[in-house]
Amino acid sequence: MHAPAPRRLVALLSLAGALLATAPAMAAPEAAGAPGAVSAEAGQVAVRHEKFTLDNGFEVILVEDHRLPLVAFNLWVHAGPRNEAAGQTGFAHLFEHLMFAGSRHVPRGQFDKFIDAAGGTDSNGSTNFDRTNYFFTLPSNQLALGLWLKSDMLGWMIDEVDSVALANQQDVVRNERRQSFENRPYGMADEAMYQALYPEGHPYRAAVIGSHADIQRIRLADVKAFARTYYRPNNATMVLAGDFDPAEARALVQKYFGTLKAGPKPPDVHVAMPEITQERRLVVPDRVELSRLTLAWHTPPMFAAGDAELDVAAHVLGGGRASRLYGLLVRDRQLAQSVDVSQGSQSLSSVFNIEIVARPGASLEAIEQLVDAEVARLAATPPSEAELAQARASIQTQLLQRMEKVTTLADLVNHYNQMAGDPGFVGRDLARYAATTPAAVSATVARWLAKDRRVVVQAVPGEPVLPPEVPTPPMPTKAAKGERESINVAQAWRNKPPAAGPAKPLTLPAARSFTLPNGLTVIHSPKPGLPLVSASLVLRAGQAVNPADRPGLATFVAAMLPEGTATRSAQQLAESLAALGASLHANAGAETAQVDFSGLKATAREGFALMADVVQNPAFADAEVERKRAQLLAALAQTREQPDQLASVVADRVYFGEGHPLAPSSLGDEASLKAIDSAALRQFWQGRYRPERAALVVAGDLTEAELRALVEPLFGPWRAPGEAAAERPLPPARPAATRTVLVDKPGAPQTALAIVGPGPAAGVPQAASIKVMNAGFGGLFTSRLNTQLREVKGYTYGVFSGYGMGRERGQFSIRGSVRTDVTGAALVDLGKEIQGMRAKPMGAAELQRVRNAQLLSLPGLFDTNAAVVAGYAGNWSAGQPLNAITELPARYAAVTSASALQAARDFLDPARLIVVAVGDKAKVLPQLKAIGRPVELRDAEGALVGK
């Protein structure tokens, strides 16, 4: 299913010091074992729920779940691009943005601030072809506040929308489009695929975000007409999922939504499913390093006959490392960098999509022939029972993981309600896959995936052909008379937000640790409920300990771990994981390497055995080393395609200084990757992958006794061969003087910015004050920086700041992309916001809001096994004790306006910032010079090429 970029970027910026490196999950002890809405007995998955409809047609679904003191508010308006008029592509998505601009009883710009002040999380909206959703999660004592906000959005948003709000959000959405299409690799090829699949007039023909021309031509009268037609209670459904009393919830829903006026029945959408009878082929040039092949077919609508079989076929062909095309193209023939196959299910028709990113020098024609042969083989010969079982296991695990978090559980229930007409459809959904047979999969592939029924798109390196530029009009300064109107009568009692109920104790998840005789630290946080387990093995084996002449070695070693052990080949490992419906990934960061596992409790023993095997017995076989080398070299080339990644790579090189282990890309460089051999990989592994320098962090439905029974026989015998590598301190960063660096990307419609400077390492006493200060400056969506550059000026889709505090390193950064023609103006505004943050203390209201956004949001940030594991793994990586996590509430509560101001003055120094801009030199350089910044030019490798 098409998923557009989110309305806002969620920046969870870590303290990584006296607090933690990555936020942990949270659970009140009294909630342990509390009843949840999801049951998974004997493999039968169900969601306990209650559905009712108000007199005005508003549908409400209650999912009572007391696992955590949270309530998820999930509102679906049953309107998307399928409901747009001709010439108004992107309308539904633009309307999503406008819904956050303000309403009759919630002043403009205050909606997200109410969410922050209440400790809300996951506040966002999204649009797909069939619907628009609006969601956030609040502490359970804020039930009334959430309903007040949601009802005002639905009932009184039209009262406040005027030409100023419309113009601002048109700018924001067009920035989002530039970021997601024109300035993203393969973005224009993705759009071209849909335009080739669907004819003129079909609502799925355009990208969800629409075209620049259509977005810009939308008028205020169009917005009001769309609201009157679709944004009415009888065309919307809300799911409440979480910790509430159903009787109280029903009464409050009636109070806040019962007075909204029903609208006319929205017009039905009747569109014939398009039929392709002759293959359509396109070649789309783009600013890419690696070519990509896309094959796309029209397939049956969601939940129709054949949909489940094609979902299984997607898993068989390209559903992971055990799939046929991955094995053929990535592992065996080494023609592809990546394989992605999906059945994108939608209401009017679906799209079966095969995407293959080619290795450098590989022929797309040769890849296409191999793909065609594999699709034809699946059409002629049914998949094996093992392949079918792997697909079922993966689908079930992914579905359970969506239900672990109340935010995504609520959205899943709403999804089933609209698309299947049954909010409790999950059991029947899984039954579709259980009933699927190998013969049915094969027959369905033969029926739908014929060569003459498809679109073929080749995205190749070259200069993209973009539509004519659509000017951005000047922003109106004020609304004209008569722009406001109402659908519902204003109600004075709504002017005041409802008071919060009694708050439940703020208690973070407990964890205990024990040490095996070989020195391995085991950290355990039990989380009963769904039968899921997550784990991470963390080792002090990251980029920081790379030899000076071998950048990228830590990444290479981690990448080799799943590529075969002494007793299992890479293919056997992949097939074993697929059979479990589990995932296992390895990677290396700045200071640590990690091996992450997630899966079902029932198969945790087998999953932990695979994890132990890849860490303790990697093969480093020469053939696999050569294959992985080629893959890493291609990945290095891909970083040059992504402006934001390129900006970050160059910023690190300039900030840390030549010769510092953190200066190069974590992938290393071409010379190093070509020089690393199996002996170097094994030597690094022997010296760094050792139990006494590692921690195994586990969260999920396991008791300590169960965990010990799993890990002691698997990890207890671990003995690292050879001598441990010597510990050496990380050298300090050696940044050049403050400067502006420009990397030329001709024709780029946006400038990607990475602004970096010094920051504290873990353990500083001011960590909480720094976090709260940064939340106000640039860490939150409602921060000063993002508000000014996005909501006031319309320069960007989002700009955020944060502090990375590691065990031995610290760095401050600001990242985001701005429209090319306002690069200089955006930097000027950014500098003013920094000075303002350092000039005087935050006022009481702002301090309370941003401090609460850190303190009261803890339950909502920490609600999955993966989040618990990430928190304690990051805490261990940063060298902090376990209680650093449980001390979080007290540390945040102690922050004052004075301590936040001091944090800004100590750790937000504009005189020490390095600005890296990746954009069109011809247009950006004059702007930088005009604001008085000396500029040096660097290439895509970060090397100096001029001033």
TrEMBL record:
Peptidase M16 N-terminal domain location: 60-149, 528-645
Keywords carried by this UniProt record: Signal
InterPro entries xrefs: Metalloenz_LuxS/M16, MPP/UQCRC_Complex, Pept_M16_N, Peptidase_M16_C
Signal peptide residue numbers: 1-27
GO molecular function: metal ion binding
Domain Peptidase M16 C-terminal intervals: 218-394, 676-853
Family of this protein: Belongs to the peptidase M16 family.
Alphabetical list of PANTHER family matching this protein: METALLOPROTEASE, MITOCHONDRIAL-PROCESSING PEPTIDASE SUBUNIT ALPHA
Protein name: Peptidase M16
